[in-house]
Amino acid sequence: MSVYRVNSGFRVCLIIALMSLGLSASAQTRYPQGLEQVGQARLSLLWLDIYDARLFSPDGAYRAGEAPLLLELTYHRAISSEELVEETLSQLEGRVDALAVPRNRLNKLLPSVDDGDQLAFYLSPDGRGAFYFNREYLGELENSDFNRAFLDIWLAPDSDYPELTQQLIGKE
């Protein structure tokens, strides 16, 4: 009789644990909600509009090094997956150790985009990064150093586009 109770109790605990894993996994794949816009900016090169960028935080304020943050990029032109990955890697040079860059994972995660498509990156409080395409979950990166460096392409004081950075972080 006591063996049955132990096995029965174990089964109940196992079922609860598996259910909670399923709930937390699905919660991580949902598009982030409840964030307020910090700032927005448009990246244009010469006469070509590339994308509109918007940054979100829990209270609509940007504090360097704090998370969660959501960066949304809405594209104004078609860009291939290969171009996105190459430009990302180019922008990351000097920001993160080359060994920390998950090139193969980026090749699998980043899709080609067309005019009107949205690519978003969410940095969670625990440093995980999740990509979304048109609000649909693409996948996650666990390397917090890479994830922070990825956001720093847009948010670092020494970014390639300082005016865009200032607009995104709500300073202009």
TrEMBL record:
InterPro entries listed in its UniProt record: Chalcone_isomerase (IPR016087)
Keyword Phosphoprotein: no
UniProt KW keywords: Isomerase, Signal
Alphabetical list of Pfam families matching this protein: Chalcone_3
Keyword Isomerase belongs to the record: yes
Signal sequence region: 1-27
Gene Ontology MF: a single term: isomerase activity
Domain Chalcone isomerase: from-to ranges: 46-168
Listed name of the protein: Chalcone isomerase-like protein
